[in-house]
Amino acid sequence: MISRTAPTPPASLAASFSTPALLVDLGVFEANVAAMERLLHGSGKTVRPHVKTHRTPELARRQLGGAAVGVTCATVGEAEVMVSAGIDDVLVANEVVDRAKIDRLAALAARARIAVAVDDAEAADTLARAASNVGATVDVVIDVDIGLHRCGVATPGEAVHLARAIAQHEGLRLRGLMGYEGRIRLGVDNRAALIASAYDALAETKHALVDAGFPVEVVSASGTSTLTEALADPNITELQAGVYALMEPELRNLGLPFRCAVAIRGTVISRHPDRVVLDVGRRVVGMEYGPPVPIGFEATEVVVSDEHTRISGPGPFPELGGHLDLIPGQIRTTFNLHDVVWAVRDGAIVDRWPVSARGSSQ
Amino acid sequence: MGLRDPERLITDVHERVRAQYAPALGRASDELTTPALLLDLPILRANLELMADGLRDVPTALRAHVKVHKSPHIARLQIERGATGVGCATVWEAIVMARAGIEDVFVINEVVGDERTRALALLAREVDVKTAVDDTVQVDGLSRAAVAASSTIGILIDVDEGMHRCGVASADEALPLARHIAKSPGLRFLGLTGYEGHCSLEFDRDKRYAMADEAMAKLTGIAATLAANGLPCQIVSAAGTGTWEVTSRYPGVTEIQPGSYATMDGHHRKLDPRFGWAVTVLASVISRRPDRIVTDAGSKTVGASHGVLKGWDLDVYRFDEEHSIFVVDDRTSLATGERVEILCNYTPFAISYFEAYHVIEDGVVTDVWPVMPRGPESRWLLDALERGE
Predict the structure, then answer these.
(1) pLDDT at residue B136, as a whole number
(2) Is residue A154 part of a domain?
(3) 3 state SS of B130
(4) pLDDT tens digits for A180-234?
(5) Domain assignment of residue A2, yes or no
């Protein structure tokens, strides 16, 4: 419904650059995408990159191919932007219950292959009618609560009950199930046991559906945090990981073959013997997993306020007016604060892409 | 300058968001597509009234800081209700506010970089433009830009009042900098600015006010030193929503620069509960379980500081990016599809995630106002200035 276009840039890229700016290193990004392809090789599994990570069609397109069969979205608005950008296979891994949003989703299913998560028979009913109205078919996966305590059916019995409701509808096609355990990040207590219990719940639900005569072609799960475990699981067919392509500092400790591809470039606007202050604040960098990490020198303290980042340390600091790059702690909220991302290759800015789905939270 | 239509920059974006959200106009807030950013106009007006009342008996001027709301429409209301000008965090905000008809804009931040000094200098040909410095490098950049644009930029020295961010640390640093400004072409030395932001982390009012007084003693002390050396400070500017009252009464402070008083949030209501919650995030319940409800507004809309539900005394279970989860029991009547309002703990973060406010009067959407400049990609505003638009 809502499309966003960044203002037209001047002819020269360099002439339109200003800080704070969001940068992606294409060499690192491409290496991450290739590393995921290698991880999946021979596994029989596919990846459906979660594009809520960057909300940027130019990046999404470059993640597809090989074992990457389509994208995952969190909102109908994101899915609309991705389909408009030419991506024809989208899973909305979230519950859609609002009537207006269901109508938009059905309209989208007339243009592309659309799947959506369902945990409620009434929502399935509304969705089926909306799909029939436009002559479309919507794929559905049953959302299973595998320990996230958010949306999702709680038991295999509930899943079978819901599958029966879904099977009655012409406009819907039951593809399988999904769950999400990607919030079990490194350092969570009982991490291994929580992941095992999540996968047990997926397996039980899958078997209950199969026993009841329902096809389960798709078992979709996992984030980058649980990638290793998901690859070893026999039931999961599709990974919803998204951060792997761009990475966050905290996830580097997982031992995965991915490197950080994103930076925020700031300008030193104030310089003191013990610190510099950059024009990078919480209005442009996500802070849910801690402050951004300066690239290139040791900082003893990084303090981020609304409009500024103060970096303390022994230096040597850049001159007043100089640039400094920081790796954001949380890239998903960071992308959602920017209209454009600057593509960098070998240290030089080579392109400027709109974060077209910025703010597409509806 | 004789601009054909100086406000077109604003009206174009206003028309665009009105068209985008056209189905919302005239609708009750509980019928809107969510998540949506709501602005309760009567509450906002009451907040502006309260601030005007609080300053009635003092000579201190009100400079409304607009970085919180990034709304030219709200800024205009603040000017109507007695603010003598606005404070901005970036030159891009300053351009938007000038285009909204505001004639006194102060970028209360260090402006560094050719594109930014040029934007400020061009803007200074149209309205009264001021900015802050803490180093001769910034002064020289601004001076060059002002000379090139044949304009004059007002300069205030940024004083570190205890936050240890930007700002000069002492009169010894301020005096040579003031002399440097005074002899720089294209610039006019106007005085001092400081922000006692460290005080706004102290919720005990008496302690906070004592800290603010200490900060003001430093600020006005430096002003006295400059005056004694032939550099009188026409403006001494300070304060935020947590210290507006005490600082507005400190002798020698000529203006205060609060921002959050207009929109408010959980953090600032702990500092000054007299102001009402004018900005909220509207969400829908998308999943109802026996022990919890899940809404469609998470940290990507409410912001990293999260929030609580308006009118429902429910504990927060968790905020995820696209969801917030609240603890319920069988006495909670909220059902799937129902709308709830989230009171943000820190509103600026929520505002950054939206492109427009749904303006609510008597429970109905009466207008849609853009968040502008949304940023940080705002270089196009310099192009607009250069084209004389």
Answers:
(1) 98
(2) yes
(3) strand
(4) 998 898 889 999 999 999 999 999 999 999 999 999 999 999 999 999 999 999 9
(5) no
Q: Which of A1, A94, A183 sits opposite B322 (nearest CB)?
A: A94
As for how many domains chain A has, the answer is 2
pTM of the full predicted structure? 0.94
- Give mean pLDDT, residues A328-348: 96
Question: Per the CB < 8 Å rule, is B377 touching A21?
Answer: yes
Q: Give Cα separations from A175 to A81, A136, A201, A218, B244 (angstroms).
A: 24, 16, 18, 6, 59
Residue A326 lies in a domain: yes
Domain that holds residue A106: 27-246
Question: What is the DSSP track for A88-153?
Answer: -EEEEEEE---HHHHHHHHHHHTTSEEEEEE--HHHHHHHHHHHHHTT--EEEEEEB-SS--SSSB
3-class DSSP assignment, residue B110: strand
Question: B102 and B212 share a domain?
Answer: yes
Q: What is the CATH number of the domain that holds A106?
A: 3.20.20.10
Q: Return the amino acid letter for A274.
A: D
Range of the domain at B359: 8-40+278-370
What's residue A1's pLDDT?
A: 31
B322 → closest Cβ in A75, A307, A319: A75
Give the chain B residue nearest A154 (alpha carbons).
Answer: B289
Say whether A307 and B67 touch across the interface (CB within 8 A): yes
Statement to judge: residues A149 and A263 lie in one domain? no
Cβ pairs A/B, distance under 8 A = 164
Which of B34, B113, B197 lies closest to A267 in CB terms?
A: B113
Q: Are strands A275-278 and A262-272 parallel, antiparallel or unpaired?
A: antiparallel
B366, B294: one domain: yes
pLDDT tens-place string over residues B112-138? 999 999 999 999 999 999 999 999 999
Please give the pLDDT value at position A182: 86
Interface touch B165/A306, C-beta < 8 Å: no
Mutate to test the interface with A, among B91, B117, B300, B351 (most CBs of A within 10 A): B300
Residue A3 lies in a domain: no
Which residues of chain A make contact with B292, given a CB cutoff of 8 A? 149
pLDDT band at A157 (very low <50, low <70, confident <90, very high): very high
Inter-residue contact B324 to B332 (CB < 8 Å): no
- What is the CATH number for B154? 3.20.20.10
Closest CB from B164, B317, B348 relative to A283: B348
Q: Is A149 on the interface with B (CB under 8 A)?
A: yes
Distance from CA of B388 to the nearest CA of A (A): 16
Record: contact A337-B164, CB cut-off 8 A: no
